Structures are given as C-alpha cells and as structure tokens.
Amino acid sequence: MPLTSVEKDLDALTMTVTADFPVGVRRLWDAYVDPRQIERFWGPPEWPATFTRHDVFPGGTSSYYMTGPDGSRSGGLWQFEAVDEGRSFTVRDGFAREDGTLNTDMPTMLMTFSFTETDAGSRLVTVTTFPSLEEMEQLVEMGMEQGMTSAMGQIDAVLEDLRAFAADLPVAAQLIGDTQVRVSRVIRGTVEQVWRAHHDPELMKRWLLGPDGWVMTVADAAENVGDRFRQEWTREDGSDGFGFEGELLESHAPHREVTTEAMIGMPGEPSRNELTLTPVDGGTLLTLVITYPSAEVREMVLATGMTDGMEASYRRLEELVPVS
C-alpha cells in the first residue's frame, strides 16, 4: 500500500493525499497518462473504470465510467487545465451524465497531481480543492476519500506489470462497450514526429501501406476542421484497390484529432476515429478509439486483420524516425 497520508484542511477546502512508490517518476507518470494503465486502478475493485478518452494536454479532456457489480455506471470527466510533462497536471474533475457531458448538478473539484523523485523512488501528492465546505463534506460522505485510497491499493500491481505496456509490443486492440475498440501502440519517436507522419502526404505514402505488396496512390489530407480527406491503395501490380474518405471534425495539433471514416463506395454510416498522441517512456503512445455504427460492423472490420496491417505500417513508420 503506497498511501502515506490523507490530510483535510477545512479552512483551505483541500484534501491532500500523499503516496510513495518504489519506481521512478517516469514509470509512475506513464501509469497516469496511459488510459490502459490508469483504468486498471482508478476505480475501486468493485467499480472498475473504463477510459473512453484520455487527452493529457492543456485543454484536453478525459472521459471515463465505472461499472458496478449490478452493471450500473457512474461517469466522470476531467478537463485538463495545465500539464507540466513528467512533473504535474491539473484537472477540473466532475461527474458525467450518461451521454458523457458534465453533470452541472453535481460539484466539480480542482485536482493537482504532482510527481517528484525520492531516495526510494517517487512521490505523488494529489491536492483536491473543493468549491465550498458543504460540497467538500458532500463528496467525502459519498466516499471520495475511500475511493482514492482504494485506487492507491491497486496501483502497485500496475507499476510492476512492465511487460504489458512495454514500448516494443505490437498493436493491441481492446473492445470498449458495444461498438468501440481502442487500438494502442508505443511508437519510437516524438509526438511531433508521429503527428507529422500522419499528416504529410509524402511521408504517409512511405509507411501507411498495411501488409506488404500494397502501395498508397492517394493521400489527400484534411488541413482544417470541416475539410475532407481521401486515401487510396492498390496492389503493387495495379490490381484490386480500395480507399477511405472522411471529414476532419476536431484538431488539436499535435495531440489529438477526430475524423469520420468510410470505405469509398460502400453504403452505411461512417466510423468515428479519435486519435491521441501522448509522450511516454520509449516514444509516443498512439491511442486510436474507433466508434463503429454497430457491434456487427466492429466485428466484421476486426476480422479483416486490421491490427496486423496497422502493425506492419507502424513498423515502417519507426524506420522513418527521426523524420527530417
């Protein structure tokens, strides 16, 4: 149990939680910025968390829900106000409605997570500032302190599990809910390099090829929100061929973008792709959350070997780093 102390200051309207860990700051920091890791300890054991979005940059947002033993859900929302890479981040923490929007009927808190080196490893100090004494007492009564203590009781196992999140692992896909999949991979290179590789048409044609034997013939990128993109491939001998097109819905370079995506010439609703790039030990964590029109479409796409093709492409991308 890494928890060292919990101190409540009723005058300052703060609760300070201090915890010490036998690992370096970088390892501890990565556990908090990687959605695959934080969801393994953020919720109490009986209410595990699922992060559907985790954008650790100023102005970014994290959305998660915790699922109870009876299947009921409780949602949370973080809005990142400040991020000092490897040292601290501050979020506006609130409750979320079923549709993921902020529940303004419930209190919001300001939480600052500070990471420092110690002789034995690292220390995390979390300071929560409440809007009023009444709301502070309300949230403590709802079990906030116990929830944070419970989370600290689970983090040791995550920190010890180095292999599950190593930088040399291939693409991994995790099903989320009924229609989503989260694709993750650590790519050697900086966030800026990986972002550029996803947006420079000439670079895209060198790595975004999927399995061997294909060439990218069209790489029309969307530069501004509302623009459309188009990507096409054929076999090296010119036979066959397919492509995707869509619209750029959001862009927060070089950290996050959201697009629609549909196969050219195929009827039906497009998917929604949310790309997030996060600096971690070993490179850049690429997280792609894809929301499909239905569970059936999701299963059909995954059965095509999508992740194998993505892994082949990302290996080529790493060969281009550093991108000049």
From TrEMBL:
Record family assignment: Belongs to the AHA1 family.
One Pfam family recorded for the sequence: AHSA1
Ranges where the Activator of Hsp90 ATPase homologue 1/2-like C-terminal domain occurs: 25-160, 190-321
Name the UniProt record assigns to this protein: ATPase
Organism: Microbacterium paludicola
Domain of life: Bacteria
CDD domains: SRPBCC_CalC_Aha1-like
Signal peptide location: none
TM annotation in the entry: none
